[in-house]
Design brief:
single chain; mainly alpha; Cytochrome Bc1 Complex, Chain D, domain 2; globular
Length: 127
């Protein structure tokens, strides 16, 4: 059973690892601002849904669940580092079956904000 669980985790991690290294062609809106929808689909949708928990937590209102926005950005860039030093991050890791979020060092804070805005807009639209 542990072997099956281990294989499932590895497959999950592999499927969540679609980090886009060059977002310029698909992640900018016509006005040049980051396209949150495209960034979400490229980087997040394998493990997250906008308005309900999936492999990882819902991203609607995620900013309000963190005590510090800079800590949230740090988590997106390297969750394992933040899990080592923050109790909320550690509890998230435990709640979601100790499946670590893959690092996204390529995302800027502006792009992360665009993803959160897209998710919040999706959550508001579904009410």
């Amino acid at each position: 059973m542990k072997l099956i669980s281990g294989i499932a985790v590895l497959l999950l991690l592999a499927s969540c690892g679609n980090n886009a290294t060059d977002n310029n062609s698909t992640s900018a809106s016509q006005d040049g601002s980051p396209n949150g929808e495209q960034l979400f689909k490229i980087n997040c949708s394998q493990c997250h849904m906008a308005n309900k928990d999936f492999v990882g937590p819902s991203l609607v209102g995620v900013e309000s669940r963190w005590k510090d926005r800079q800590l949230l950005y740090a988590y997106v860039k390297n969750s394992q580092d933040v899990i080592q030093r923050d109790e909320y991050a550690k509890n998230l890791f435990l709640k979601f079956k100790q499946v670590p979020m893959l690092p996204f060092p390529n995302l800027t804070e502006t792009e992360v904000d665009a993803i959160f805005k897209y998710c919040n807009d999706m959550g508001a639209a579904s009410k």
